[in-house]
Amino acid sequence: MTWQPELDELRAREALARQMGGADKIKRQHDGGRLTVRERIDGLLDQGSFHEIGAIAGKASYDAEGHLVGVLPANCVFGRGRIDGRPVMVCGDDFTVRGGSADATIKEKTLMAEQMANEFHLPIVRIIEGSGGGGSVKTIETTGRANLPGRVGGAQGYHFATINLGAVPVVALGLGSVAGLGAARLAASHFSVMTKKTSAMFVAGPPVVEGIGQKLSKQELGGWEIQTRAGGVDHAVDTEEEAFECARRFLSYLPSSIHSTPPVVPSNDDPNRRDEQLIKAIPRDRRRVYKMRPIIETLVDKGSFFEMGKMFGRPIITGLARIDGRSVAIMAGDPYHYAGAWTADACTKIIRFVDLAQTFHIPVVHLVDCPGFLIGLEAEKTATIRVGVRAMAAISQTTVPWCTILIRNVFGVAGAIHQPAGRLSLRYSWPSGLWGSLPLEGGIEAAYRADLDAAPDPKARLAEIEDQLNKLRSPFRTAESFWVEEIIDPRDTRTLLCEFARLAEPLLTPGPASFTMRP
């Protein structure tokens, strides 16, 4: 006598679970241009590595004699797997089962995925579609009561979704319409991706919003252009397969948890590589813009720059990269947007980014071109100085190694925080570096008004004053007083950054940081 009958029933129940919401619902998913949750997990993880947990949980039906007739599985599939050989947790919504709503949810599954990631120090990837287990109006009828938000299981879910941001890498993929709790789970991540044609994110969807007089389509309300420009989601791609690749690549730069340091990978890129284009990358005409991204690509290991949040806070470029095989967090001014002046959105982006670097022990490289905070009415309406001071505090509170390269403008209060205050960090300047309390352009006429009014040729006198002041603000004058430590040939920058990455590596200390990332 063996237990084979029970094992046969187990396999039968597992087979029923793999049917998800049924053939018609799977077809509807595919017709909408979307994969099923199980296809998504297979596309994300290393082949054959998925170990599912709780596969047979759901609502079973039985005949009069108590024999199993069918199973409607829970609308959450989760378990352990591997990405590039490293263990991860993955938790996905099954939209083929009641549209991912609360009526088909077993909250303990999502909760256990988050708790297991936290306690086993594993990254977690959330694949989100629907309300992510949130409630609906119909829930009142099916349960016979109204849910109190946050009560019991909900509160635990919020707890782990929050503390995991300070413990393990969290990636969220929005691959359909995402609302309510699902939107909160998508936003509560270190890196989030949505698909351009098949996904949208909102606090409440179009039918609910129409009740307040706004008749909008899903894309008009929460499509990728809305969310990436608002900073609600970090990145958008054309296909789900691209979303999986983004998740894998993001995780490759990070440790599995705060209890380890970022992995070092072999690099075939010469640390002493010199790019001759760098010597002319910055125009001598200070009014001309230039492209910062090609400079970044030249300085880091070839092909390693992974930009994050490109459409949001555009005066600042942020992303992960490798230098001599070591992970670094790149932050750089973009003169194509407000000349690199820090807006309120840019400051919000900076806070979130340096929090990420601090949480996961990633050294920071800051390529500076910042004429200060944005000025004008819009800057005041968005409380730029308030958010800017928070960005200054976030930078100064970091303890990870920091290296600054002064590329061009370094002015005002925002320029003052080009490196953390009160501790050692490496700093180099290119010969194109310019700095001061405020830019000369536009301020000379006000400062020298009496002199200009008394001059027989005010334009000629203005040119004389400009020439005199430009000589005084030469970076070599600043170097005389050791206010800037080193002025370098731009072509030597990569070599110095590789040295910085090697110097920083033994300083990275596993464990909880002094502060961690918030959503």
- Identify the overall geometry: elongated
CATH architecture of the largest domain: Alpha-Beta Complex
What is the helix fraction of residues, given as a range?
25-40%
Task: Calculate the terminal CA-CA distance, rounded to whole Å.
Answer: 56 Å
Q: What's the average pLDDT?
A: 91
| Total helical segments | 21
Count up the domains. 2
How many strand elements?
Answer: 17
Relevant CATH superfamily of the largest domain: 2-enoyl-CoA Hydratase, Chain A, domain 1
Catalogue the unreliable spans: none
Structural commentary:
37% of the residues lie in helices and 19% in strands. It is of the alpha/beta class. It folds into two domains: 7-252, 2-enoyl-CoA Hydratase, Chain A, domain 1; 276-437 and 479-507, 2-enoyl-CoA Hydratase, Chain A, domain 1, CATH 3.90.226.10. Strands 1, 4, 5, 6, 7, 8, 9 and 10 form an eight-stranded mixed sheet that branches. Strand 12 and strand 13 form a beta hairpin. The radius of gyration is 27 Å and the shape is elongated. It starts with a helix and ends in a 15-residue tail after the last helix.
List the helices and strands and how they pair.
Layout: H1 4-18, H2 23-31, H3 37-44, E1 51-53, E2 58-62, E3 68-73, E4 76-83, E5 86-93, H4 107-119, E6 124-130, H5 137-143, H6 153-163, E7 170-179, H7 181-187, E8 191-195, E9 200-202, H8 206-210, H9 218-222, H10 224-230, E10 235-237, H11 240-252, H12 293-299, E11 306-308, E12 316-323, E13 326-333, H13 344-359, E14 364-370, H14 377-381, H15 384-397, E15 402-411, H16 412-416, E16 426-429, E17 434-436, H17 444-447, H18 449-454, H19 458-472, H20 475-480, H21 493-504
